[in-house]
Amino acid sequence: MKVWVRINHVGWVHLWRTREAFDAAEPSAHFLNGRTDPRWIEVALSPDQRRRMGAGELVEIEDPGYFLDED
Fold this sequence. Notes:
This protein is α+β, with helices and mostly antiparallel strands and 71 residues long. It has three helices and four strands; from the N terminus they run E-E-H-E-H-H-E.
């Protein structure tokens, strides 16, 4: 399952199920501390994805396990 992710200015990672939800300014479906969450620390991202997220951009990634029970 693909999800959309954006990291805010204090390092919190926010996940949306769809780009449309983000564009409609809906609250994130899930959020976490990117420095301490074990699933996020181990997520495999390309250098481009990491660069874009570091710049505060919204990026599409494979769900690293946050929505497994919600498919």
